[in-house]
Amino acid sequence: MLNTKTSKAIVAVSDPDRARDFYQNVLGLELIGDGMGGVMAFRTGESELIVYPSRFAGTNQANAVVWGVDGDMDAIVADLKAKGVVFEHYPDDEWMQRDGDIHMAGNAKLVWFKDPDGNILHLNSM
């Protein structure tokens, strides 16, 4: 039944104004709706990212959102780094090594970073 329905990512934040600045100006997402107590919708490719205020913001210890960036990884990482984004670095292991801010796993390039509330955001290029 749900296989024909569109899904959206949703992220909890503590400060909607700070989140708006980050998602709109740092990540470059288009704000397509706001209201209802600080809830915002951003266009991201062909889908939407919903950002909403919550006292539980930043408590998720796993990936909150993932973007497939195809061959644009290096340019996107450079752009985000120039805007002050700090990337997460994880230890090398048998299946993943790091080159600068980009982790490599076979043909895949992977990066992780956090929004101002500590939500883990992930980019991958396969």
TrEMBL record:
Gene3D superfamilies: 2,3-Dihydroxybiphenyl 1,2-Dioxygenase, domain 1. Residues 5-126 form the VOC domain. InterPro entries: Glyas_Bleomycin-R_OHBP_Dase, Glyas_Fos-R_dOase_dom, VOC_core. Signal peptide: none annotated. This is Glyoxalase.
